[in-house]
TrEMBL record:
This is Cytochrome P450. One of its GO terms (molecular function) is oxidoreductase activity, acting on paired donors, with incorporation or reduction of molecular oxygen. Gene3D superfamilies: Cytochrome P450 (1.10.630.10). Its cofactor is heme. One of its GO terms (biological process) is lipid metabolic process. The keyword Iron applies. It comes from Panicum hallii var. hallii. The lineage of its organism: Eukaryota, Viridiplantae, Streptophyta, Embryophyta, Tracheophyta. InterPro entries: Cyt_P450 (IPR001128), Cyt_P450_CS (IPR017972), Cyt_P450_E_grp-I (IPR002401), Cyt_P450_sf (IPR036396). Signal peptide: none annotated.
Amino acid sequence: MARELVAVAVRFVREYVRASDLAVAAAALFACSAVRSRLSAKPGAPMLWPVFGIIPALFAHLDDIYDWGAAALARAGGTFPYRGMWGGGSSGVITSVPANVEHVLKTNFANYPKGPYYRERFAELLGGGIFNADGDAWRAQRRAASAEMHSARFIEFSAGTIAHLVRGKLIPLMEALSESGAAVDLQDVLLRFTFDNICAAAFGVDAGCLAEGLPDVPFARAFERATELSLARFVTPPFLWKAKRLLGVGSERALVEATRAVREFADRTVGERRAELRKTGTLAGRCDLLSRLMSSPPPPDCPEGYSDEFLRDFCISFILAGRDTSSVALAWFFWLLASHPDVESRVLADVVRAGGDALDAGGSSMDYLHAALTESMRLYPPVPADFKEALEDDVLPDGTAVRARQRVIYYTYAMGRDKASWGPDCLEFRPERWLDARGAFAGGTESPYKYAVFNAGPRLCVGKRFAYAQMKAAAAAVLARFRVEVLPGQAEAVKPKLNTTLYMKRGLMVRFAAREQRHEPVPAAGGRAIKRELPKAAIERDGEE
Ligand code: HEM
């Protein structure tokens, strides 16, 4: 029957339709689609092409995509619609308007989960972990994560792990490099530092990325590969990656292999910790997240205690969330310091003022350093854009309509460079904008929806305090001992990579020159006073909403 219908259709076309008719019909279709696309975009917004949507515009600006996107948002009044090329609901709006961001992240939080689009793409690597979860599954993990991470015990432990890595690995490595005069990619060194740090905090294990000779670490490599391959699904037509997944070929096969390596490591660690608990009857001597969760009383919604699978997914999510963000933030910070010697002197003065053990010096919070890091992340946010998926039709505060299953992308990079939010000097690196008249950090009073670097609302980054402690300890220790000399000729090369994390495309080559006078700002192992290290205002701001 179907065959007959096709045959009739072919005969009809052959007999009654000429090639020129077909060309006219195609041109008319294309024109209608172009007009429709053009009408659906806002004045100033990038062209939405028939069939290809925003893709041609993105390709034309691959080299300066972040700044181009920020300029397009500014021209379009802060929000514009976009459409991808393939189905699967790849359309929505891009915004940098703080009121819209507040609406999505807080006011109408229930309508904007991470959603199935995100979850499906990270399913293999993250399973049901916090980063991938919504609803009750997310809430339960969030409660557990907040309780553990904000406990005095974890804060003290994590300060100890930071101090241990900074004193025991990072500084000796830089001393050796300084003595030999060798250049190194600072971004790579920092990525190794934060990977080791998050593995120690989450699992209580030394991943060994900062070990002598900076070895290749299979677990770290597998983790990076699995993340990259999961992210590739966001820019690949779903029919393509799903077919590859079904057949077990190409990038999908590589993803399965990388994920298996990550999960084997995590499963082994969880298994060994369980065995230790069974053998010794307690994990009281261990403070990492895995041990704390394993030995905490079962939550009401999970009377039999956390399953091994839950613990594995929880820790993998933490590694994904915490492994690269603070390192890229530090890399951009050192890059900015290199071209702002006045800011560097003020940071150094702050570090010196903090004296001996800066983090132990009660009340000495290195506010200027805190402000300089905050300012650096305004210009170079480690997560340059993020998105949520609408459950139901909605209208954003600026009047933009969002349909169910569409995405709202909030563009943190553009938000940090928005004149309306930060004034005419919004492109300048000026830590002073975060300080009050007495030089105390006053950023805690800024709206988190204007500075969404750590997200905001109920899903505010749960590792924010940890990240600041880590970045401040590393920056203070390095700056007190070395001048970080950026190798000349990199001004053109240091560009952000197109990724969900704002890596530098080709890293940052530096040399370390020992300072004549040496200061000792690293926290003592055990880091007793890290609780006091954050300015009060920042602690208040951190409170989850
Ligand atoms: C400068 C460093 C950091 C930045 C800029 C940052 C930024 C963010 C952002 C934007 C999100 C929201 C992601 C989303 O919902 O799609 C987030 C969530 C999260 N971050 Fe961070 N992060 C940093 C460091 C860390 C560290 C060191 C840890 C772990 C110790 C961590 C743990 C988490 C977790 C677990 C979540 C998920 C929270 C939830 O969904 O409830 N982050 N972070």
